[in-house]
Please model this.
Amino acid sequence: MDTRAAQSKLALLALSLLFLPFLQATTSFNYCDKKANYAVKVNGVNISPNPVVRGKPATFNISASTGEAISGGKAVIDVSYFGIHIHQETHDLCEETSCPISVGEFVLSHNQALPAITPPGSYMLKMTLSSSDKELTCISFSFKVSLSASESLVSDS
Model:
């Protein structure tokens, strides 16, 4: 490889690292019931890319911890747009993370490609994790949907 090609690749790598914080930033969240003593404590929510680009895959990673082993359960995801409930889906908890979940830290990862016709704007997502006999945790957070990746980089700067 010649020097010019190596310099171009290095410059491209440096530029991509510059935009990495815009593509994967920690999202603030709230517990549904601030007084509840949930068995699962959420440490953070990462969305990549952020904002989500309609028609393209997005990953929602929720880092959490638990003080008790969890053998299974379900994750219910409710999505609202301008306060209007527009979508609900239920997943087996063991499809979103490996089960059984041992005491300690774990990551729940959900991949989703929003339809290309998804309107841009701010959305609210509520996620409830439950086992067969109790609610393990419930959080909500907002996320944005943009028309394209280039638009989302411009709107963040």
Observations:
- Residues 42 and 156 are 26 Å apart (CA to CA).
